[in-house]
Amino acid sequence: MNTSLRYDWTEQELQEIHDLPLLQLIDRARSVHLQHHDPYTIDVCRLISIKTGGCPEDCRYCAQSSRYQTFVTPERSLDKEEVLKRAADAKASGASRICLSVAQRDVKEGAQFEKIREMISSIKEMGLSVCCTLGMMTEDQAQKLKEAGLTYYNHNLDTSERYYPEVVTTRTYHERIKTLDAADKAGLKVCSGGILGLGETKEDRLQLILTFAKRRPHPASVPVNSLVPIEGTPFAHREKIPLFELVRFIATARIAMPSSMIRLSAGRESLSKEAQALCFLAGANSIFQGNKLLTVQNRTVEEDAELMRDLGLKGK
Ligand code: SAM
Ligand code: DTB
Ligand code: SF4
């Protein structure tokens, strides 16, 4: 099978792949995976939330939006020392990438931006690769982050363009895409994915994969989050995404974007070891490690070490 990279996928093709009998779909995704990746190595990333909560945006799934009464109360930003200590801890438990997060609408230049640039350089000097998720940014800001040593920029599209206004109203899909373009132009690797279980349809999920698969280059990293329901947000009681739908999404993304990393992201806490194994078989090859994501619990570092031992997976 020819599995070279393509940028001309159609919705029809992706739909046919997505709807294959499950085991055929997994076989096909696995075969693409084997041709493009070492199947026993995964990318292990650690999130550090520099600034938590108090975000002005209205993302209806998010614990950190100031528009909803959730368990999160806005916290003071972490200082550089604390961030570097957490990065060192992450390295000691096997992480190879650190993702620095700030709950905000867009990047603001000034003292905080300079501090983040210093953090990026110092973490890079520790031999770790660095990703940031700071909201929308301009090409000039992307360039400044690149100069500080940044490798990846995370900025999720979350869902289809059609469904987006049902999820967020304080920004447009187009604005989101402009930030991905800025990251590409500055030579940063794009990390962009979505959330399953927002109440979207299968077509919305396929449209999301299609949007990514038509980008040249494909996002280097595609986080696949399952909604973690947050009491107090409008999406607190959405129906959970069935496991096989998650597996189908991962496998379709793997086939459409053979060389990208696909990260099994938020929601792993509610997946058994066996369910996670199925996701790896379908083409996932990256995880967030650490007892906490940004605000919610994740699988513990010990549980992940055991899972990786059981499956014969090692970190990069
Ligand atoms: N504020 C920045 C932004 O929106 O780009 C960065 C942080 S934001 C929390 C990063 C991503 O986490 C979101 O785009 C969303 O995909 C994911 N996320 C946030 N809350 C989630 C939840 N409750 N369940 C699953 N994924 C979630
Ligand atoms: C991504 O796609 N998932 C991460 C990261 N990128 C920044 C965040 C998950 C957040 C889960 C909900 C929380 O911890 O608040
Ligand atoms: Fe703010 Fe990001 Fe949460 Fe949206 S997802 S409310 S932009 S922190």
UniProtKB/TrEMBL annotation:
Superkingdom, natural source: Bacteria
Binding sites annotated in the UniProt record for [2Fe-2S] cluster: 99, 131, 191, 263
Pfam families: BATS, Radical_SAM
GO biological process per UniProt: biotin biosynthetic process
Catalysed reaction equations from the record: (4R,5S)-dethiobiotin + (sulfur carrier)-SH + 2 reduced [2Fe-2S]-[ferredoxin] + 2 S-adenosyl-L-methionine = (sulfur carrier)-H + biotin + 2 5'-deoxyadenosine + 2 L-methionine + 2 oxidized [2Fe-2S]-[ferredoxin]
Enzyme class name: transferase
Residues annotated for [4Fe-4S] cluster binding in this entry: 55, 59, 62
Domain Radical SAM core: 40-265
Presence of the UniProt keyword Endoplasmic reticulum in the record: no
Cofactor: binding comment: Binds 1 [2Fe-2S] cluster. The cluster is coordinated with 3 cysteines and 1 arginine. Binds 1 [4Fe-4S] cluster. The cluster is coordinated with 3 cysteines and an exchangeable S-adenosyl-L-methionine.
Keyword 4Fe-4S in annotation: yes
InterPro entries: Aldolase_TIM (IPR013785), BATS_dom (IPR010722), Biotin_synth/BioAB (IPR002684), Biotin_synthase (IPR024177), Elp3/MiaA/NifB-like_rSAM (IPR006638), rSAM (IPR007197), rSAM_sf (IPR058240)
Record key words, sorted: 2Fe-2S, 4Fe-4S, Biotin biosynthesis, Iron, Iron-sulfur, Metal-binding, S-adenosyl-L-methionine, Transferase
Family: Belongs to the radical SAM superfamily. Biotin synthase family.
Annotated function: Catalyzes the conversion of dethiobiotin (DTB) to biotin by the insertion of a sulfur atom into dethiobiotin via a radical-based mechanism.
Name of this chain's protein: Biotin synthase
Organism: Estrella lausannensis
This protein's encoding gene: bioB
